[in-house]
Amino acid sequence: MSVDTRTAPSGVRTPVTFHIFKNSQHWEPAMAEYLNRIGAGLILVDAAPLSYDWIPPKVVGREKEQEKLAGMFASIGTPGMSCRAVITGNVGSGKTVLSRSFADDLTRHLSSVRAIQPVHVNCRNHPTTSQVLQRIATSLDERHPERGFSASEVIQGIRRNLRTRNQHMLLILDEVDHLLRKDGGDLLYQLLRIDEGREETGTLSIIIISQEQVLDQLEAAIISRFGRSNHLALEPYNAEQLTAITSQRAAFCANPRAISEDILTMIGAAASSSGDARVAIELLEYSIIQAEKDGDDIVEQKHLQNADVRQGRQTVEPNIVDELSKHEQLILLAICRRLRRDPEVTSGDAEKLYHVVCEEYELKPRGYTTFWKHLKALETRGLMESRTATATVGRGRTQHITMPQSLPGQLEARLEHALDQ
Predict the structure, then answer these.
(1) Backbone angles phi, psi at 314, to 5 degrees
(2) 299 exposed, middle or buried (CB, 10 Å; 0-12, 13-18, 19+)?
(3) Counting Cβ atoms within 10 Å, is residue 190 exposed (0-12), middle (13-18) or buried (19+)?
(4) Neighbouring C-beta atoms of residue 19, cutoff 10 Å
(5) What pTM was estimated for this model as a whole?
(6) What angle do helix axes 408-419 and 277-293 make, rounded to 10 degrees?
(7) Which of 195, 343, 352, 390 has a 20 to 30 Å separation from 148 between CA atoms?
(8) Alpha-carbon radius of gyration of the chain
(9) Residue 168, SS3 per DSSP
(10) Cα(69)–Cα(230) distance, integer angstroms
């Protein structure tokens, strides 16, 4: 028996009871058994630690760098003092995790001495002076208006807000090279001089982060305020460090004993050629997906075989993206973003995603014929593979795209960097 509602001519909705019968017997719809694996948690219990943006409770693999960073901020516990640091390193070298974890640890450590207010701004997402200042201002006051104030007025408003609260801001400007390319170093210079001509000092400390050697892009006046000795350059991770990172992520995301130390060591070794923590995390996620897809509650070596093909024996180097045309890069970026979470993408979806990426980079997308030509050029270079299958919607056939020879996450980062140049 089931209950539905019908609208009578009078406009009043009244309940109507009806029965479902099959072969003259009472019949209830069966649960869709093919969905049983979704949410079953055979291995994965929390997907958050597999995100690149996840901040662990303790940083592993960068203990020496933590000590160096702490040394650069040795005087921050003293009222009236400000500190600065520049952190550089390749994609996946732990720059963001190191700085954000340091800010959180510092806030707790000095809680009885000085009120630290950490603020993190990703300049890739907020590449202009006004956008960065708006992010800082709204972190202190959500009601801060978006328009109507000059940069210097917003900066002094931030200063007044911090002084009123008796707080010291630790500002992290992540991927600062995007801000420098867009607006130059003017904002950095103004922030570094926020207390100039004031009796009270020590309003703001700054950490800037970049993949590039940003010190070479800054004016002498800014470099002198940061100090070249306050530059922390992160080297690529080695196999041991990557294994430690993978083990930590596995401990937080997976069922206990689902992933052995041997498997974690293999993942660390497979990712060591890149030195990129993101590669290790992606291999961990991929192996878990493969195991659960097979209905297994532990990750075995067989689940890493495809991952080994994608990483250990991959034939495509990430720097090949530098040789592509602008729209080939945009198409490949669109495909990579989808394949980071799905095993394949149809050519129709890839075209739609390409249009979204074009809008993001404020470029006009090419027509279908040119799009298809670029798609085939990418396949010829070995960056992707396609197979033809019957379309699931409508008639005809469609192309299903995969990347068995590459890691989508690694290529995505390289493509974003190339497109931002």
Answers:
(1) -65, 140
(2) buried
(3) middle
(4) 8
(5) 0.69
(6) 140
(7) 195
(8) 26
(9) strand
(10) 8
Predicted local confidence at residue 17, as pLDDT? 45
Q: Cα separation of 117 and 139, whole Å?
A: 9
31, 40, 303 from 293: Cα distances, Å: 20, 11, 10
Each residue's pLDDT tens digit, 35-87: 555 555 789 999 999 988 899 999 999 999 999 999 999 999 998 999 999 99
Quickly list DSSP for 299-326.
--HHHHHHHHHHTTT----GGGGGGS-H
Cα separation of the two ends of the chain: 64
Closest by Cα among 280, 384, 268, 380 to 331:
384
Under 8 Å CB-to-CB from 204, ≥6 apart: which residues? 82, 159, 162, 168, 169, 171, 191, 194, 195
Angle at 261 between CA 255 and CA 262, to 5 degrees: 125
State residue 3 phi and psi, 5-degree precision: -120, 130
Task: List the beta bridge partners of residue 399.
Answer: 388
- Could you tell me if 124 and 103 are in contact, meaning their C-beta atoms sit under 8 angstroms apart? no
What are the distances in angstroms from CA 415 to CA 20, 86, 187, 313, 329?
55, 24, 27, 21, 6
Write 244-247 long-range contacts (CB < 8 A, 24+). 244/60, 244/61, 244/268, 245/60, 245/61, 245/277, 245/280, 245/281, 246/271, 246/280, 246/281, 246/283, 246/284, 247/60
